[in-house]
Design brief:
two-stranded antiparallel sheet; mainly alpha
């Protein structure tokens, strides 16, 4: 009877303990009765006569005690370490106290080491934090700069007169963001890249882009590409050092020659159009040639004699006007023909002109040039004949401040005159104010006059021509890029220059679209080529990733400030932005083989690019996409690691069609089947965790479906939890090897398993009475076994070094008590 009373009392105590744990989490006290009595007397005496300080101690004891800390022992330890709170050296002791002296020295040494370590740690942490912030800020700056499509030096000048955008009017929402002109250019870029990646001879990108202009039926665009082709036809072998090549005298002379040819051919075509458009007035006849063309042109332009023409006429036209227009059309022989006809009227000019015509660089010798300049200053400076003054200034490269507005009334004429006066050698025969260098002419056009002088917003092609013909390629491209409807032309001009190695690129990606760099010669500008392409492709990379990839291929040899390959970086951003993983990077077939993507023809080692994109997706939290990419890159360790991270939060959830768990489960099962068929395995710990999570997911599916016996069999085979008292120690030891993904679900696994045992117990109790003896004994044995298993689960939950959810233990105990 006494035994039954004690057992009932014990059962009530355990039930009370379970209810207490369910209400609040109090610390477990392990003391005998005498210690409990002494502690109680101490607390009672202090509570009866307590001061405000004592009350604070009591509250502190309760607070810290709820977390398992003993304030009495802690206060004693803090008192012994009071000196360590400031890490200052201890006070010296008396010299006679040897033991105290040694202890003090030891403590001082320890405190010094601690203080030095603390100081180094803080300095190192600050340095790491600063570097991290700088990297992040650099990335933010680049994203902001790439977003500002109005890039360049005037990007934030909202008052400038910029042409309106017409692109949005022709794009189709939800489909391609490219207009017809951009599509035509993109097709030529595709043809160009196909030749390169297939190992064929590099085609001429300028010719491919010029063919687009022919289909547009736009004279301005056609003339622009004709000018670009002629200006860039100066090299046989691409330069290794673009800056050195561009600033060499030979290259600059070649640029000036090509620019003069462009302007002279253009003017000759203009005269032909004028003449053939007015044949009756022009009275074209005689031997075909430039002379007859100029004579007929002057019949239209100068129909009668002009005042101030003092040196006679040629077939009714002032001689100097005929010479000037022959020179303007680029035909020196025709001009010489005129000089020979009236040589008796021109004095020494014939000799000077013959020397000028026979000179390879169109330059008189210093002696002749000085004589001509002296004659000009004494006799011709104030001449009333504007054509004569212009011809002398061309031949002698003198009077560079005279713009000759009477004859050069158009921008092309002014530019032709000034390019003819450019000097490249400094022989000391002329003063600096009488010499016009190419950098001086560039500065005059770009900075002194600028866009407003040339009405660039109304005539963008004209200003582009002015800059391009004076070898300011980067400034010309940057200007044209700011005009929305002409942006595509600017980008492809830059690509042509880049392929010919004539483009001066910025050294840093964060630089402005057009910038100067320290140590450069005057008027040298650099174009941020990387930024130019990224700004252009940003418009259509989400709708036309294939076309964007073609442009990114030009960056395959470029690197950013961190040394990262820009092609790989742009591809990774493109894939993440467009989400076209299968199309761009390929996809994995059911048999484990990889179907190639668009990227395969651009890169031999696609695994490196796919791994880069996968890492980028992982860093952005796109774990499911990263799993597919890592599998494409044949990295099973990362595949299983990320799958474990994805599966862990959902394995205990109720599965439903189209749910997050169902999708992840299907993905995981497909990976598991593929890896087992191919014999692929990851790192041992990650691999075992993955398959264990899959088994646990099956366990919960059976559990939620009400198949408790099947779920019990799964848990028994997994050997994750102890189902007998003898296996508790073994399971506790094995628990230390489980990963966090498994431990995270331990509370749910324990509760589900206990619930299964409780369900089986209730079913056992509900068995009909009066069963045969052997069956009755079997039921009793099963009853004892279920109770023992429940007790084993509670013991296991209390022994494992892991903090589970707050009410897990209480719920376990409650169910176990209900089984008694």
């Amino acid at each position: 009877m006494d035994g039954e009373g004690f057992g009932e009392l014990l059962q009530q105590a355990e039930q009370l303990a379970a209810e207490t744990e369910a209400v609040s989490e109090l610390p477990h006290v392990e003391r005998n009765l005498q210690e409990i009595q002494q502690a109680g007397e101490r607390l009672r005496s202090r509570t009866l006569t307590r001061t405000p300080h004592d009350a604070a101690d009591v509250k502190a004891s309760i607070l810290l005690g709820s977390r398992g800390l003993d304030i009495f022992h802690i206060s004693q330890r803090l008192e012994t370490l009071s000196a360590a709170t400031t890490f200052e050296p201890l006070e010296p002791v008396k010299d006679t106290d040897i033991q105290g002296f040694l202890k003090n020295e030891r403590d001082n040494a320890l405190l010094s080491a601690i203080e030095e370590s603390r100081r180094r740690t803080f300095l190192l942490a600050e340095e790491y934090h600063r570097e991290s912030m700088l990297v992040q800020w650099e990335q933010v700056k680049q994203r902001v700069l790439h977003t500002l499509l109005g890039a360049g030096e005037d990007a934030l000048d909202f008052n400038q007169d910029v042409e309106p955008s017409f692109v949005s009017e022709v794009t189709i929402p939800g489909r391609s963001a490219l207009d017809s002109v951009e599509v035509a250019y993109a097709r030529q870029i595709y043809i160009f890249n196909e030749k390169i990646v297939n190992g064929h001879i590099h085609p001429n990108l300028g010719d491919l882009c010029a063919s687009v202009a022919e289909s547009l039926d736009d004279k301005n665009v056609s003339d622009m590409w004709l000018m670009v082709k002629q200006m860039t036809d100066v090299l046989l072998v691409p330069a290794k050092d673009t800056l050195k090549s561009r600033t060499s005298v030979e290259m600059q002379m070649a640029f000036v020659r090509q620019a003069l040819n462009v302007l002279e051919n253009s003017y000759k075509n203009y005269t032909m159009v004028t003449v053939f458009g007015n044949l009756h007035q022009a009275q074209l006849g005689g031997v075909p040639g430039t002379y007859q063309l100029v004579r007929s042109f002057l019949n239209i332009k100068l129909p009668g004699p002009l005042p101030g023409m003092q040196d006679g006429e040629v077939e009714g036209h002032p001689v100097w006007a005929v010479i000037y227009y022959c020179l303007r059309c680029g035909d020196l022989n025709a001009a010489m023909q005129v000089v020979n006809r009236v040589q008796h009227q021109l004095g020494d000019f014939k000799t000077w002109f013959q020397e000028y015509m026979n000179s390879p660089d169109r330059r008189l010798c210093p002696t002749s040039e000085n004589k001509l300049r002296l004659h000009y200053r004494r006799v011709l400076r104030n001449s009333a004949d504007p054509y004569k003054r212009a011809v002398y200034c061309l031949i002698g490269k003198c009077d560079i401040n005279d713009n000759h507005g009477e004859v050069a009334d158009k921008t092309e004429d002014y530019l032709w005159l000034k390019l003819n006066q450019v000097c490249f050698d400094d022989d000391g025969s002329s003063s600096p104010q009488d010499r016009l260098t190419l950098p001086q002419l560039q500065k005059q056009l770009l900075e002194d006059y600028g866009e407003s002088h040339f009405s660039a917003s109304q005539q963008p092609f004209l200003y582009f021509q002015v800059l391009f013909l004076t070898a300011q390629f980067e400034a010309a491209v940057a200007f044209l890029f700011r005009v929305e409807r002409l942006r595509c032309h600017a980008v492809h001009v830059a690509l042509v220059l880049y392929e010919l190695r004539l483009l001066l690129k910025s050294s840093g990606q964060s630089a402005q679209l057009l910038s100067q760099e320290p140590g450069d010669p005057p008027m040298i500008r650099h174009l941020n080529f990387i930024r130019l392409l990224m700004l252009y492709t940003r418009k259509f990379e989400s709708t036309d990733p294939r076309e964007a990839l073609q442009y990114f291929y030009f960056l395959r040899n470029e690197k950013d400030s961190q040394g990262e390959n820009m092609f790989m970086r742009c591809v990774s951003e493109l894939v993440i932005e467009s989400r076209e993983f299968d199309m761009l990077l390929g996809r994995l077939e059911k048999d484990g083989s990889r179907k190639p993507g668009v990227i395969d023809k651009f890169a031999g080692d696609t695994r490196a690019i796919i791994s880069k994109v996968a890492l980028e997706a992982e860093n952005k939290g796109l774990f499911e996409e990263a799993v597919k990419l890592y599998e494409l890159a044949k990295n099973p360790d990362k595949v299983l690691e990320l799958m474990n991270r994805l599966l862990s939060p959902v394995i205990a959830q109720v599965s439903a069609p189209q749910s997050n768990k169902e999708r992840l489960k299907n993905t995981a099962v497909a990976i598991a089947e593929r890896y087992r068929c191919q014999g692929i395995a990851g790192e041992k710990g990650v691999d075992s965790t993955f398959y264990l999570l899959l088994d646990l997911m099956t366990f919960f599916d059976e559990y939620h479906a009400g198949h408790v016996d099947r779920a019990y069999d799964i848990m028994e085979r997994l050997k994750l939890l102890p189902l007998s008292q003898e296996s508790v120690e073994e399971r506790v030891a094995a628990f230390r090897n489980f990963s966090d993904e498994v431990r995270h679900n331990l509370s749910e696994v324990l509760l589900a398993t206990m619930n299964i045992l409780f369900t089986q117990y209730k079913r056992l109790k509900g068995a009909p009475a009066g069963t045969p003896g052997r069956a009755q004994r079997s039921l009793e044995d099963r009853d004892v076994q279920l109770r023992s298993q429940a007790r084993a689960l509670i013991t296991f939950a209390g022994m494992i070094p892991y903090n589970m959810a707050g009410d897990t233990n209480a719920r376990l105990v409650q169910m176990e008590l209900l089984m008694n």
